[in-house]
Amino acid sequence: MSVHCSTLNLTPRYGGGPVTTTHPDEGRRSVAAPAVWGKVPPRNKNFTGREELLERLYAGMTAGSTGQVTVVLPKVLPHALHGLGGVGKTQMAVEFAYRYRHKYDLVWWISADQRVLIRSSLAALAPQLDLPSAAAIGVEDAANAALDALRRGEPYDRWLLVFDNADEPEEIRDVIPEGPGHVLITSRNHRWEDVVEAVPVDVFTREESIAFLAKRVRKAITPEDADRLAEQLGDLPLALEQAGALQARTGMSIDQYIELLNEHTSQLLDEGKSTEYPISMTAAWNLSVSKLSERRPEAIDLLRCCAFFGPEPIPRDVFSQRISGLDPRLSEVLANPIKMSRAVGELGRFALARIDPGSRTIQVHRLIQALVRDELEPEERATHLADVHQLLTGMPLGNPEESVNWGRHGSILGHVVPARVQESRDLKVRDFALNLARYLYMSGDSFALEFVNLFIHQWEKDSGPDDFHVLKAYREQGNILRQLGKYTEVYELNQKTHENMRRVGMPDDELLLLVNSMGGDLRARGDLAKALEHDEDSVRRHEAAFGRDDPRTYRAKNNLALDYCLTSRFDQARELHEAAYIGLQDAQAGAATVLVHWNALARAVRLSGDYSEACDLGEEALAYGLEYLGAEHPVYLWTAKDLSIAWRRLGELGKALDMCTDVHGRYVRRYGLDHPDTLAAAMSLANVQRNNGQEEEGLKLAADTVTRYPRIYGDDHPYTLACTGNLALLHRTCQEPAKALELNETILDKLEHRLGRNHHYYLTVATNLASDLAKLERYEEAVERGRDTYTRLAELVGANHPMALACAANLSADLNHLGTSDAMEEAEGLRQDLRSRYAQKLNLEHPDAVAFLEGRHLDLDFDPPPI
User: Fold this and answer.
1) 10 Å Cβ neighbour count for 828?
2) Where are the domains of the chain?
């Protein structure tokens, strides 16, 4: 027979002593387990042979690494174990993990046949590395944090990752950590040979086949009989396992088994069955199924159902449901717990499924699944697929927005695509798919966009672009794109989706979910007045549809309060944020939702000028976020960044610098340099660096950030312009006042065009422009600009707001420089009034008050808020 060979290989990552040979029995004795041992399948008690390959594998992992420093090693990809289905690649990887577990502090198994499962498995590793869980920070961030820890070798530098069934090299290249540990990959794809060194794994040698059958068959089997049986089965390990299980279960003689096997082989060949699978494997499987049908036909019904799930472990609870409309034979099995348990047990005893009591899962080998499916008529396949869809849909997964439920969603995710859920037109199945898309979005999984696009493509093809579920899927797509910072795409998509939803008569409870997010689209475009108008209408519509105290209404009010902050209406924002926060807290909303509103309230308090109160709120909110979400959760990072700003405003500059530096680093690792949240954190860091005497560092960071802002928001977005104002301020503090003046004059014209002269962004830049003029000793112009700006600020935010106080303090200094008696008299009167107001608002030890008393100019800066 023709046999494809398979390969196995590993990359040396850390040094060690001389390679030692492990006797087969030595690997099975009790040894110290690694500190972390995760998701490794149960050991095969009948594992036989492969000694030379196992020793060669371990030698390859350590050869050449003794005495070498990890950082100077050339980049080498992990090797791969690949080959024919049923040849025993996975079993060999399992045996390797158990046999050499004493060499590692961490061993982690990753199912790699679907890309979405890889990061989920890595995310599940994060808590074992003392990192926040996926429930706290999302799947993507937890996976990235785990990879980073492995690369650094902290807390473990002796680790083994096994990527099982990684058939596409491109899909796992970015998740292979280049650290001090080892990576083992199993695959059927020979393309691995193009990029890595390979160790072939063939079928058993005849001696290994005979030894395996001697272990597997309970009643004694002679070497001669084992040799004859192995010859018939082509020494394929999975076929031998099937034969051994059947003989152990039925006690039939070798002669009888071979006779029946030949009958099935002839039958298969006569019927012209596909040769995609080894004929010996197909015949052995056919014989096992035939005998199991005689003993326990309900087990075959269960096996056929399992064949249409993915090859990943199936949660046992899937089969504990009572669902109407299933195939009658399957319903009968599921309805009777005794029959169900017997069926599961028989599948395990006949080696047709792997039963793991510890994890309470059932797993069917992908080759057996394929053989089962191939035996069915198209109508039968459709029936079983529909049954699987109903079983998946019936699982009680819980609210996908609550992190406590993410584990249940993740446990069935690997079965969605193999079961072709996207092809179902059942409304419940489509709702189920949308909930999974929501879970992927909320957990921060990078697969979210690809997942929702798969369903949009299929549903649009099957049901047309105006189908309700298609439109709801587009709504989820918009949320995912916004999370990725793709604001232009989101705006265009949501406008089109909203128009289509209205045209087809989408109910208000569905339509308003989209409406509530569209104000953010307008804010992202810089249309702050339009966003305000939109969200005022949204709140009215939410109140009419759901009532004033519904959590959905409070979320709409939170968005409106964001608009108030962005249009200089700080007191209104503060009041509305407080109402939304209290309302959602009373409604016992999830921790992330509560923290979003809590932090928004703290931000509004800061913007209204009450820095001490903002710090108190922010510190309490941050402690809450750390306890319930973890230090990597996006909302925690928002809260930490805003608290660092509040500390800076209060004058706690050292704390502010430390916090902001840490937050910026986390954002860079999480999103990269061009994500909106990273840019906002970078600008806040540049501001606090300036306050801490690190002007040159701040200037460099601000200059880089300002070049990146237009990529997200455009050249004339208020955020882009206001951040450019921060850059101008840093030019002046770095002794380039003329450059600062030129930049500020340009910005001011654009801000006036976008926002008018009575917006706090405009007045922030105008205050700094007056300081540019003063630095250039153009005091008359500085006084003129300062008077106009102070009048507008006092009217806009109140005369006692720190912004107005700073502008007035600068004005008093510039009046003194004019030198006329009238100007000096005006300056003195203003100084006396300001001293009293500073003492009342901030206290005279605040850095702003100190600068004012010393006659120095005060600077105003801008920190970009979320949209």
Assistant:
1) 13
2) 6-201, 206-399, 410-546, 590-712, 715-867
